[in-house]
Amino acid sequence: MLHRDKSFLGFIHPEFLQDFVNVRTLAKSDKPLRSISVDLYAKYISGFSKYVIYIQDQEGYYAPTELSVNTWLELTFSETKLFDSLIKIFEMLALIHKWILWIEDPKNPNKVCKLLKSIYGLKKASRSWNLHFDERIKEFGFTKSEFEPCVYTKFSGSIVTFLVLYVDDILLIGNNVPTLQSVKEWLSKCFQMKDLGEAAYILGIKIYRNRSKRLIGLSQSTYIDKVLKRFRMDESKKGFIPMQHGIVLSKTQCPVSSEDQDRMKSVPYASAIGSIMYAMLCTRPDVAYSVSVTSRYQQNPGEPHWVAVKNILKYLRRTKEMFLVFGGTEDEISVTGYSDASFQTDRDDFRSQSGYVFTLNGGAISWKSSKQDTIADSTTEAEYIAASDAAKEAVWLRNFLSDLRVVASISRPIDIFCDNSGAVAQAKEPREHHKSRHVLRMKGLCARQ
């Protein structure tokens, strides 16, 4: 057993303890969506009992995970003069220092084991693993990004190496193959891992490359096919837009009678929203607005809301082969932002909708569509609030890209385009007009900077 070989357990008779955690062995085949075999391996996971003994517990449970925007940034750079590789970690066991936990021995119920390393299913497992990985990778000379805790960088003269961590998946990117190989050798000494070679899939997203034209594409067509089949929309008509023109959704369309509510409970509304949302967050900014609107009614969806969700699925069926494209230009790498707003489009509380997208040499790397927190009194105010939200994202992008040292132009201000002349004028020169001065107090400083 893997955990016994790694000094996983220390044994004690159960009569000395009253509370302990039951465990079981879970066999799992962790096969990525590509033509490569990954060995079947076993995991110990905790379960059944809720009794856990913690001593000097001051670490908390939080463990960061990588955001898609950073992955797309890294992959965009890999299509310039860099190489990449995907690594799978099989052993996510970290030593336990500040807390104690006892578990039942799966092979001998008459014995209780003192846990020496964290196992899958524990509340602290992910955090323990992340702290353990952080310590080991820093020993090799990597530095954690100040603005994204799952991105590590290493600079040695003209040699640059990036490491992106997503739980137990690692994306390595660098401009020197021997250096990448040395990182893999170090990781293999520290963890049980497998080198999957050049990244063909990452988090279920297919990567297309055209080295000659310096292009890279990111597609979720396989994932979308699975979603369509799961919700029985794989044979439906193909939609042309994610949300039909003139469709207005509101809480007045939610079911009131118990019969209608019971009928809608059998509809996988929240599950469909979550499945579409993953595609939206990764590669499909074109459905961001429709997902934002339909996700507001998950607690008590009505038939019109479900029809709107199915319309998104129909649109994805027609456009499943569309994907994000990066690169293809010799120009200096630069970031550009665009913001927009719709005025009081929510029929329930009359709030406006904000939206923005940032591109890196034409390829979308960050986007968002969400309902505003306050009620805007005018289109200028709505646009100004949207521009302020975009400015916050621009600040983070600028800091993160500066940390990576790959975009020379990032030292200059990021251009954000807004299609409202009043909002642009307010951002350039503050005008203390009685109808807009409250906006300047709330959002003015961020947008102007």
From TrEMBL:
It holds the Pfam family RVT_2. InterPro entries: DNA/RNA_pol_sf, RVT_2. Residues 107-244 form the Reverse transcriptase Ty1/copia-type domain. CDD domains: RNase_HI_RT_Ty1 (cd09272). This is Reverse transcriptase Ty1/copia-type domain-containing protein.
